[in-house]
Every structure is written in C-alpha cells, then in structure tokens.
Amino acid sequence: MKNIKYIILSVGLLIFGSCEDNVLNLEDPGSPTDATFFRTEAQLEVALTGIYEQLNYVNAVPFPQLLDHTTDYAFNRGNVGGTIAATTGGLTSTEGLVNGFWNNFYTGVQRANNLLTNMDKAADASDPSRFEQIKAEALFLRSFFYSYLTELYGDVPFRTEVTSLEELEIVARTPKSEIVASIISDLQEAAAILPPTQPATERGRASANAANALISRIALYNEDYELAESAALKVMNSAETPSLYPDYEALFTDAGVGSSEVLFDLSYINGTKTHGLSQRQGSRFGGWCQLVPAQQTVDSYETINGLPIDEDPEYDPANPFENRDPRLAATIALPNSVWTGHIIQQHSDSIATWRIEDGVKVERVFNPNSANPAGRAIVDPYDGTEYVTGGANRFTAFSGYFWKKFSDAPRLLGSLSGGPSPLQSEQTIYLLRYAEVLLNYAEAKIEGGSIDGSVLNAINAVRERAYTNSGVPFPAISTTDQAELRKIIRRERKVEFADEGLRLFDIKRWRIAEKVLNTTVLGGPANGFSKIGDLDFVPNIDDDGYIDYTGAPSQPRVELGNLDYRELEERTFDPGKHYLWPIPQAEIDATENVVTQNPGY
Fold this sequence. Notes:
The protein has 20 helices and 19 strands. It is an alpha+beta fold. The strands form 9 sheets. Strands 15-19-18 form a 3-stranded mixed beta sheet, with no helix packed on it. A two-stranded antiparallel ribbon has the order 1-5. The protein has a two-stranded antiparallel sheet with strand order 2-3. Strand 16 and strand 17 form a beta hairpin. Helix 5 packs parallel to helix 7 (208-221) and helix 6 runs antiparallel to helix 7 (208-221). Mean pLDDT is 89; it is low at 1-27.
C-alpha cells in the first residue's frame, strides 16, 4: 500500500462513521463484519486503513492541537472544538470535547479488536511477513488509542476482543495501571515484528522505532523511569537511528515531512482528507486567527544566554523578541516579523502594512490585524492614503501572536489571490518525533537519579539543533544537579513541543496544572511594548515555569489606545477533579452505572 493518507476506500464495506449511542462503539458501522470479510490480505489492509482513520479525529482541527489549546499555551477565540469548557473549569460529562475524544478513540479500539480477532481467517491467503506486520500495526494503533484514553480519563473499560451487542457483557472500568501494562506488552510485541523505520512509500505507518518511542512516552507518563530510559535507548541505538532535522522551523513545513526525525505522523491529501488548522491558526492575511499563542508562552522562551528572561540582566523588556531562543520566532509569528507575505502589525495605528515578495516591500495594503474600532478613518502616514477601519477586525490576533508551526503559510498566502482554502490544508501533523525520544531519555534518567554525560548530550542535541543557522552559539547545559536539570528539562519540553499536543499530559503528571491553569491568560500589549519597557517590567518565573505578572499593566480587551497586556481569559482548575476529564454521561447511562464517574463530576 502507499503511504497512509486516510483514504476512504470505495469497497462498500467501510463506511467511516460512529455510533454515538452504542457502548464503546461496539457496533461501529465503519467496521466490516466477520461473516463476510477478513478472507484475503487485501481485506486485512482495508480493515487496517479503517483503524488508521481514527487517528484523524478532527473537531475543526487535528486532536494534538486541540489538546494544546486546553493548556496554558494558548487562547481559543470562538471556542473551536469546545476547549473553553476545559480551560474555564466548566467541563461536564456531556461536553462535545469529552464525548468526541472518547467516541473517536474507542471506535479505533473496536476496529483494531475486530481486525485482531478475525484476521486469522486470512492467514493462509496472506503473505506471512505482511500478515504479521498487519497484526503489529493494529496492536500499535490500539495501544496508541488506549494511551490517550487513560491519560485523559484515568481508569477506563478495557477490551481486547471484538464484542457484538448480542454477546455484550458490560465491563466496568479497569485500573489504569493494568491497561498500561497490557499496552506496553503489545507495543513490545509490535516492535519485535515491525521494521525499524518505514520506507517513504509507507510513510504514516507504525514502525519499531515508533513503537519504542510510544513505550518511552507511556512509561515516562506513568513514572516507570527505567522502562522509559531503556525504550528510548532502543530508538537511539536502533539499526536505522533517527536524526534531528537540521532546521527547526523548516521541520514543520513540507521540507521536513518524511525526515528521519518524524517517527509517526498524520498525512493528508486533497480530495480524501484535509484539515482546517491553518485557517484557524493563521492571521487575517488568509486565516481567522482563532487559535493563538498566549503571552505566557512567548515569555517561556529563554534568552540566547540560556537563561529565563527574569534571570538574564541583558533581557530588554522594551525589545522582548531580540536575543531569544530561535525556536520562539520559528514557532510563533511575532509583531513586526514577516509571515504569510506581510509584515505582521498589531499596533492600533498600523492601519496599513507592507506586502512582501522575495524580501522586498512591494505594496501598502490595508492591515486587518489592527486594533481599531469600526468606522474610524485613519490616514496612512507613509503615503497619505485614508483607510476606514472595520470593526470585525479589531483585535483579530487577540494575543498579538500567531502559530507558525503546522500553519500552511503558502496556502494561507495563496488563498488571498483565489487559491485553495486553508480549511482544506494538507499540512502533515507529527505525532512522535525523535526530539521527544531524546528528552524522554534525559528526563527518565534525571528522575531516576542516574544522571551522567548522556543526559547532557541528549538535552544539548535538541538545544543545538534549535540554534543551527542562527549565527549564535547555543547555550550548552553543563550542570548535573538534579533539581536544576528538572527545571531545565521542563522548560525544554515546553518550548520544543509547543502546539504538538504534549503539554496537557506534562503539566498533569508534574502536578503543576493547578498552578499554571489557575490564572489569567494574557496577550501582548495592543500598542507594542513601549509602556511595558518604560516600566521596565519583567515577569517572575518560578521553578515550575509559572509566570507571575503581578504588577504588570493589564486590563480586559479594549480597542484604541490600550497599551496594557490584554486579559484574554480567566482560567480555573480544580485539583480535586480536573486532573481527569469526566466519563461521558452516555457511557454511564448505557451501562446502568456499571461504568462509574470520575470524582467531582
């Protein structure tokens, strides 16, 4: 088969859908029936494609980015995907966000169980090697789905065989630890069968390196540091060792797709499956700027001296984007930078900006990113042109920043001249990267108390790549103090994996969610950083990476003349219940309370 692109196959047997009222989607209409199927290798491939399809849970955006917008990374203007209930403390057992993840991932589990239960019927009609690999891929995918279900909901019903409603035996919630042990065993079995990496023609399929990377992640999340370390080492020492892509910014564009750093991804193709992330992340020059980074994220990036901004005396609050970790500008489109063919301006007087071609200013254009109220006429001081602002565009970025990572800049720019819509982007989304393996390894050894030179090598490899082609030497880590390294690895994960879907699980397992999510999420000053600079204001950053803006000028979003930080959303996190999402009420009702609710809901 060609690389997995979630093709809806016209075989009449796969109708990719879900059955919301069924317990755990036990009669998924997208699953073929064992009475008429699973007789040939080709049919096994069709069923396997149906399992891969469930990775592509898109509730307006791919699921990793949806998860990151339930964290301190970002602000969701317009409640795309329903994340506001999670950030403001209003999550309930009937929310679409809660039910969406549950239904989608359990549909994937059921499809995997269906294949694994019935595939022996095609054993004699299949190539033995491919038959075993199909089984291994199904085991990998089922483990992937359960890893997210257990991290989001805790103890969940656990099934490894297909079950019809006629034969249904209602299953209560299984302890998370038992599920984790089982899926790790499945992943180890899969890793022993799958090739170390997949060829380019099979991109998007599971591999042994992907399986071991997932084991490392799951083990780290569950504080099995010895296993997290050993699984990461298997990737680092594999026959086809991955490598870090040399250009961090380009990694998240088409140039990085298919690189050896990417161990597992979501691939898309126009006409079969696309996503709208770029439209929702992009600026008004082609996008809707609904999913935007917070000031807290911007302030998390170190200076080029390798220090948090509150510890570096050379940091200039009036010029906050200068001399910063290059991943800041690679990940986030900043004010006065060029992105999607225009100079990004947020100042309320910047009623016009420049369109840029090949690095040259070619045309002054109306700037829909300005913060002006509707109907205000402003003369562009550059050429005297009078523009009348439109109220629909006031505070369009809301935070002053845009995600560059995974935003399809060529399509965003092309859409301005009638090209394809960014709502149908083919931008590849990464699910497992080699950088994560290196940082998993380092953190496992830090937490396990076995700190040595290999820990520093792993962290410094990731940091050095961030500075490649920057013209600035990277600030190497040399300390072997456990407490200091713990702070460093947590900062490193936050900036390395921004907008990749890992932050929610990090802040929960570190037990800092109750701190970083009990705050007001801020955007940058509407009129630049002049007032902040005059006040010489720098926030305080504690050992957990919590950024304290006490004393900072801030106020709710207003329009013209506001020089303060923008207060975007008041966040609430109750440690008594919010470390887990609620079990969907439909599941509890369908099982007549055999499946119980999480505390507090």
